[in-house]
Amino acid sequence: MAAAASILAAGIGLGTAVTGGRQVASGLLRGDALTAFMLIVIGSVATIACWAGVHHLDDEAAAGAGTPTTARRYLILVQLFLATMSLAVLADNLGLLWVAVEATTIVTAFLVGHRRSRASVEAAWKYVVLCSVGIGIAFLGTVCVYATAVAAGAHGTTALNWTHLTSHTAGLDPDLTRLAMGLLLLGFGTKAGLAPMHAWLPDAHSQAPAPSPPSCPGCCCPWRSTPSGATRPSPTPSSKPATPAPSCWSPPSPPWPSPRSC
């Protein structure tokens, strides 16, 4: 949770530093208002997910579906996932962006197959295959961008920098640039789950570990989730009369009088 909170704090700090259209650039990294917004979104969602993930791991351990090894692996993968996502939004270089997105694909594949069941492993393989195809298409688009940037006079790693590309748009080959943008849209769109390359999304989202918030002790709410493969304990027989189970919601009393009171 500390890493998620750090990302959130970094996004807020960057947002205050880039007010008025200013930018913060350092080598292959760059920060602007959009970067600050994305970091705030990533940090906010990650903070909530990490907080709920602790209870999710506790529930898995209590149900016998998790071990300290699986919990440690899950936490490490989450930290790597946050790092790669942050790198993707901070990248000022298209090549570095491609590397960061590919890294998120690798880490996410292990998260999807976290439970190591047949369904989760199948979903992870489908995710890897389809997203790898998309990343390969995006790589071809990156190569095309590099080729047209070099033809426009760029050199070395600066040829793929966003700042360089935006300042030399007049010298880029229009046809090759259109081809590159189409390949990049199709490639990165596959990773984003855009149709028609979205077949991996339902399986991956259904099999990935989904943290659930803690509920009140003894609560029988139907929306309380349990770890995969875990079953709720059945009540033990007792000679005492059954008492109604606690509930988080009770129906309101009717506003009309009962027939007996009439």
TrEMBL record:
Alphabetized InterPro entries for the sequence: ComplexI-like_HydComp (IPR052175), ND/Mrp_TM (IPR001750)
Keyword ATP-binding: no
Ranges for domain NADH:quinone oxidoreductase/Mrp antiporter transmembrane: 91-211
Ranges where the record places region Disordered: 227-262
Subcellular location, record wording: Cell membrane; Membrane
Composition bias type Low complexity, residue spans: 230-248
GO MF annotations in UniProt: oxidoreductase activity
Organism domain of life: Bacteria
Transmembrane segments annotated in the record for this chain: 33-54, 74-91, 97-115, 127-156
GO annotations of cellular component type: plasma membrane
Residue stretches of biased makeup (Pro residues): 249-262
Keyword annotations from UniProtKB, A to Z: Cell membrane, Membrane, Oxidoreductase, Transmembrane, Transmembrane helix
Topological type in the membrane: Multi-pass membrane protein
Keyword Metal-binding in record: no
Name the record gives this protein: NADH:quinone oxidoreductase/Mrp antiporter transmembrane domain-containing protein
Species annotation: Phytohabitans rumicis
